[in-house]
Design goal:
four-stranded mixed β-sheet; Arc Repressor Mutant, subunit A; two-stranded antiparallel ribbon
């Protein structure tokens, strides 16, 4: 299994091995969002686009109220939370953004996941960094669990909390 994306909270860009990768793929992910919206006959409205751009710029999970502060005009009125939540709901429904339930926050998706794909988030409890991963083996395991319980999943996300390699290494050197 190879990690799909990584986002660190308190690491500087030089110490995070995937920060550069995230920046490289952000423009590609935004272009994919525009293309997908066109193909589906949907609108990537200015607020949806601003929210998506802000999430791609941050490299870490962001709460809705923090996002409202980031994309509201400087010195102007803060965008209404309902407007932010509507934009985020749209972005999640289209697969451009993931919601991390345990953090009540959102993170940009660099990859176009299929509707049946299981996505796992490895969340570092030390730095807040998030690795995103998916694999056929994980999809089969979750499908077997659901089928064994005669359960029909509508959203397949696994959140795993622990310590990333960088924080584990830093802790052993302290």
């Amino acid at each position: 299994m190879q990690p799909l994306a990584h986002a660190h909270d308190s690491h500087d860009a030089g110490s995070c091995r995937h920060a550069h990768e995230h920046q490289e793929h952000a423009a590609e992910a935004l272009a994919r969002a525009e293309r997908v919206c066109r193909e589906r006959g949907l609108r990537l409205t200015p607020i949806r686009r601003q929210a998506l751009e802000a999430l791609h710029a941050d490299h870490k999970p962001v709460g809705a109220y923090d996002l409202a502060d980031r994309i509201s005009p400087p010195g102007g009125r803060r965008l209404a939370p309902i407007s932010i939540y509507r934009a985020l709901d749209f972005l999640v429904e289209q697969g451009f953004v993931h919601r991390l339930s345990s953090r009540n926050a959102y993170i940009a998706c660099l990859h176009g996941h299929g509707a049946d794909e299981v996505v796992a988030f490895l969340i570092c409890e030390a730095c807040g960094g998030v690795d995103e991963d998916s694999s056929p083996a994980m999809r089969k395991a979750v499908a077997a669990i659901a089928q064994g319980r005669q359960f029909s999943p509508s959203h397949q996300v696994v959140e795993i909390v622990g310590r990333c390699d960088h924080c584990r290494s830093a802790a052993t050197h302290d």
